[in-house]
Design brief:
Blueprint: H1 32-40, E1 48-52, H2 59-70, E2 73-76, H3 85-88, E3 93-97, H4 106-119, E4 122-127, H5 139-146, E5 150-152, H6 158-171, H7 178-187, H8 192-209, H9 215-221
Parallel strand pairs: 1-4, 1-5, 2-3, 3-4
Length: 227
């Protein structure tokens, strides 16, 4: 280090708590149908249902709410094997997260859907895309998935985007005011991913610069015309 040079501030990424309780779920028109489905259990239209939405849309939060109510186990779809299916369904309820055609054992999922129906086990699956658009090698699985009732979580409207910005800040224990929320909501893409990335960037830069998270800092990071 040269004489007189200032040491670079290091930003340490600290863990932050994200509540997945029913009380902390952000309700709004974009997710109303999905929340209604979770709240309606056990009066579901089918033993197996699926929630579809973009990353960050609240699928995992809703799945956690349902799992707590139903006493369900949870598993990642990519970790599912045919041999593990009976044990996964043993509690009578199961969450299968992130079902995607490129990451699943098709025969294991087909076995799970059949056994869930035979054993009268409730299964909540989550995915980012509609199964009707998937290309699968196992045609019987494709047929089974197309028969599964699907509820889609839509992109956030303006009110939900603002509420999400506030929640993401609170999860990180960041102070937030209306000026900051209004500024971000008018500058970032209206999506769950964009909101999460914006708060992550604000948090990291505030820590690095040793500055509070404010509209002034946001204006330095998110210049450009209003959305």
């Amino acid at each position: 280090m040269t004489a007189g040079a200032q040491p670079r501030q290091l930003a340490f990424k600290l863990p932050h708590a994200e509540s997945l309780s029913r009380e902390d779920f952000l309700e709004g028109p974009p997710n109303a149908a999905a929340l209604e489905l979770v709240d309606r259990w056990p009066k579901w239209p089918s033993r197996v249902v699926m929630l579809v939405g973009d990353s960050g849309s609240g699928k995992s939060h809703l799945a956690a709410i349902w799992a707590a109510n139903a006493g369900a186990r949870s598993t990642a779809a990519r970790a599912l094997t045919a041999g593990a299916v009976p044990g996964a369904l043993a509690t009578g309820a199961l969450v299968v997260e992130d079902v995607a055609p490129a990451d699943i054992d098709e025969r294991a999922l087909f076995h799970l859907l059949n056994l869930a129906r035979q054993e009268e086990v409730d299964v909540l699956m989550t995915a980012r895309t509609l199964p009707a658009g998937w290309t699968l090698e196992l045609r019987d699985l494709q047929s089974r998935l197309r028969a599964v009732p699907v509820v889609t979580l839509a992109p956030p409207d303006d009110a939900l985007l603002r509420a999400l910005i506030v929640k993401l800040c609170m999860d990180r224990q960041l102070s937030v005011d209306e000026a900051l929320v209004n500024y971000l909501a008018s500058r970032i893409e209206r999506s769950y991913v964009a909101a999460r990335k914006a708060i992550e960037l604000l948090d990291a830069e505030a820590l690095r610069l040793r500055r509070p998270v404010t509209r002034a800092l946001a204006s330095e990071l998110f210049r450009g015309p209003a959305a």
